[in-house]
Write a structure and sequence with these properties.
Length: 378
């Protein structure tokens, strides 16, 4: 019987890679950017609009969907693909990061984590076995092992969290039942090189279908983030996909791909869109609420082919913002998501031409501040 998951490298340019990851709901051409649909919905964008702007993978959140509407209800209604009417691949995280965000509401022990819901204060418990059962009910193509995301600067606690993450990874593998889901292990270890290398080597030894890099963009410097990616790139096997969790500005995509990353996700495009902001392909950010755009007849980005830029002016978008029209969040989010989806595609094409560095130089990227750590209710 043919395996439902297969990763094939199709080209490289330096350490940058282009590949193809087969899943039961279609192939992912990597590098690929996944918009975040935390509650089985990418905020302000419909599935039809996501398809039109070229998205091929979306992320949904285990923690949130477990609490509401409940993973068993999602399973009863046919799984996430049917529930949210998204026919392409879906990835679910383990909920570990959201639990990390609930510092005042959770207690971690060797067997799992007990936490209080941000919705009603009710007490719940996640164990590796429980997280596997939840994600199997949700039915995503790519699922994550339970991990503990620690303060990246606390070495003593990072060692403790790493031991838990490694034990939980093994338990998740043992608890996994569905053959039509690819389970990824998560590399942790804060900003500490020895811990990151140790984690990458251990997680790689377990036989996961892919590997995720967690615990980044949670308060560390950009320099530390890039240093960690270089360590992990050198330690993970090349024949499995690599997923950088929760990182996604144009510059982040470029730097991640440069260091061997294949999959990305981030809430930033839609978060900015709901807060009047857009980014250009160069990484520059614009706040369209500013008065300077009130008579600006140009699109957000002259070089962008998204529906928003093909159709509307900056002046109209500012008008929607000033009038508090809901359409503003949709149009700005469409542009932001399209920018990252298309950038990932263009990076892939540059890798296949073995022209990655010259293409990146042509972008004239501006490095924006990293995304602040997620709130638990994103």
């Amino acid at each position: 019987m043919e395996q439902p998951f297969h990763f094939q490298l199709e080209g490289s340019s330096g350490r940058a890679r282009a590949g193809r990851f087969s899943t039961p709901h279609g192939e992912l051409e990597t590098p690929v950017f996944a918009p975040v649909g935390t509650q089985a919905s990418v905020k302000a964008i419909s599935p039809a609009q996501l398809d039109e702007l070229g998205a091929s993978l979306v992320l949904a959140n285990t923690y949130h969907l477990y609490l509401r509407p409940g993973d068993e209800l999602v399973a009863e209604l046919g799984g996430l693909h049917q529930f949210m009417q998204w026919p392409k691949p879906i990835l679910t995280d383990s909920g570990g990061f959201q639990v990390f965000s609930l510092a005042a509401r959770r207690e971690v022990d060797a067997d799992g984590v007990t936490f209080r819901s941000h919705l009603d204060g009710a007490t719940h418990r996640f164990t590796p076995e429980k997280v596997m059962a939840i994600q199997e009910n949700l039915g995503a193509d790519i699922i994550m092992a339970l991990d503990e995301c620690a303060d990246p600067h606390d070495e003593a606690y990072s060692k403790l969290a790493l031991a838990r993450t490694h034990a939980w990874a093994q338990q998740c593998l043992e608890a996994k039942r569905r053959k039509d889901q690819a389970l990824f292990g998560i590399v942790q270890g804060g900003i500490f090189p020895e811990l990151r290398q140790q984690s990458a080597e251990f997680i790689a030894s377990l036989g996961f279908e892919g590997h995720a890099i967690g615990g980044l963009s949670v308060g560390e410097s950009k320099e530390d983030l890039l240093r960690v990616l270089e360590i992990v790139d050198a330690s993970l096997p090349e024949d499995k996909p690599r997923y950088l969790m929760g990182v996604g500005t144009p510059a982040d995509l470029v730097e991640g791909v440069r260091r061997g990353v294949d999959l990305f996700d981030c809430v930033l495009p839609t978060r900015l869109g709901r807060n009047n902001a857009v980014f250009l392909r160069t990484g520059e950010r614009l706040n369209l609420k500013n008065l300077e755009f009130s008579r600006d007849g140009a699109p957000i980005d002259e070089d962008c082919g998204c529906y928003t830029c093909r159709t509307f002016s900056r002046a109209y978008l500012r008008h929607l913002i000033q009038a508090k029209e809901m359409l503003a969040a949709t149009l700005l989010s469409i542009h932001n998501v399209h920018t990252l989806v298309q950038l990932a595609r263009d990076l892939r094409a540059a890798v296949l031409r073995d022209e990655f560095e010259s293409f990146v130089a042509s972008l004239n990227l501006k490095h924006s501040p990293m995304l602040e750590p997620d709130a638990p209710v994103e």
